[in-house]
Amino acid sequence: ALDGRIKPVLGVLAAVVAARRLGFPKIVVPRANLAEASIVNGIEVTGYDHLTQLAADLGSKVPVVFPSEEKADQVSESKSTLCFSDVVGQGEAIQALTLSAIGGHHALLVGPPGAGKTMLASRLPGILPELSEEAAIEVGAIHSLARHGQFTLDRVPPYQAPHHTASMVSMVGGGSGQLRPGLISLAHSGVLFLDEAPEFQASVLEALRQPLESGQIVVSRASGHATFPARFQLILAMNAIGSGRNCSCSPVSRTRYSSKISGPLSDRLDLRLELESVGVAALTDGRESKQKPSESLRSLVTKARMASAERLTKTPWTLNSEVAGSYLRRELRLPRASTKHLDSALDRQIISMRGYDRSLRLAWSIADFHGKGSPTAEDVAWAALVQFEEIFK
User: N or C: the chain end with fewer CB closer than 10 Å?
Assistant: First the structure.
């Protein structure tokens, strides 16, 4: 400020991480940002709230000004309070989302309004393994560039659910002056949920292809360019059309609605779940309405991910969804008896090679879910069924 007071700024955590990486032993930050900056180990951080304090510490003989005492920001840790035990019915969908969490698979939820698509997606971060300290700091660094208000260090993976009217800039990032991360980057290491996905602008949906492929997003503006991390788990949701007696949609409008999710984007969705509305029976049947708590599912997911990470130790991947198709077909090759349905579908050109590999990745997640050493024929068949029902017709 003009009177020498040092105000808090955005992006302090990212700056401290960069300073440590570049080998600086010390860094000076606004005192209001001191708690946030002190999260990073291996670098000495000092906070000041007036320039005269810094000048005095550097040897200048100046009158030191101490502004009115203001409490510095405190770093708080947030915990997810959403639990799958709150969900009534939808047991198969919860099991499928657990598989999605195990392998990091992107998913599409299709169902009528009120079936619970948003409720299910919002609880997915609660069953993902907690972020490591390094990952939490990386996520915190992204959020410190865009945040307004008190800084929060999250061990729970982030969750972003933008409205379908969200603009390209809000999703991708940018802005005038300092480039800031968008919602795609704010979902890094967590979940990005797009409800009513076909209603999003086509340009916004297509912008997802780069981060889904590379795990980062490049933002270019006249003022410069920036690269932000953006490796997230994508969950899309859309209404089921043409499946009910009261549906008055024309065949043309149905095709137009579903085709808004382009082929290249659809190819990256490993799971396709069709949800039904919850009936009265689910409300009165205690066995059906009481699902496993998220804490229990998170333990299962963590154990399964450890199994896949051990299997992929000497590879650049840790999740089943990341494994290259060539590696699946050579190094992790399954007996022909286990893949006969897939092989036949590929020969008949019902599925592409990408769909073939996608089914294998999901089959390995199913095996990890059940604690098996490798997928069985039933696992491969189920993985194919949830994507390509015509294989079994």
Answer: C
